[in-house]
Design goal:
Structural class: alpha+beta
Distance between the termini: 53 Å
Shape: elongated
Number of helices: 3
Number of strands: 3
Largest sheet: 3 strands, antiparallel
């Protein structure tokens, strides 16, 4: 209960600082309870929360997770995809010929990197 109260108080302080920072534009959103996390709004109520991104490589044919990496929300998906594919290829000793990804990976830099690797 004490932890929940501390987190709630920290979030209230952060939200007040963020409202104030919008006027100055000099405040970086930092989570007091988890400084490694990036601060992001959730889809339901748009409340600022600590966030991480999970990047998972799955063998679709067999339904097996081959690789997982967790990064802060500040790291773009495109920065992770080729590295994670390479890690899966090393661990399985198999080559990857087809990649399927969600829209977060759909931009020219990612397409170019995937084309260069074949």
């Amino acid at each position: 209960v004490r932890h929940l109260e501390a987190v709630s108080a920290a979030n209230a302080d952060e939200e007040a600082a963020i409202r104030k920072s919008r006027k100055t534009g000099k405040f970086k959103k930092v989570c007091i309870t988890d400084p490694d996390a990036s601060m992001a709004t959730n889809a339901r109520n748009r409340r600022l929360e600590p966030a991480y991104k999970q990047h998972t490589i799955v063998d679709d044919l067999r339904g097996v997770v081959l690789d997982v990496a967790v990064a802060t929300g500040e790291i773009n998906e495109g920065q992770m995809i080729v590295e994670r594919i390479e890690a899966a290829m090393v661990s399985t000793r198999l080559s990857v010929s087809t990649v399927t990804a969600d829209a977060g990976y759909a931009y020219a830099k990612v397409f170019g990197a995937l084309e260069r690797r074949g």
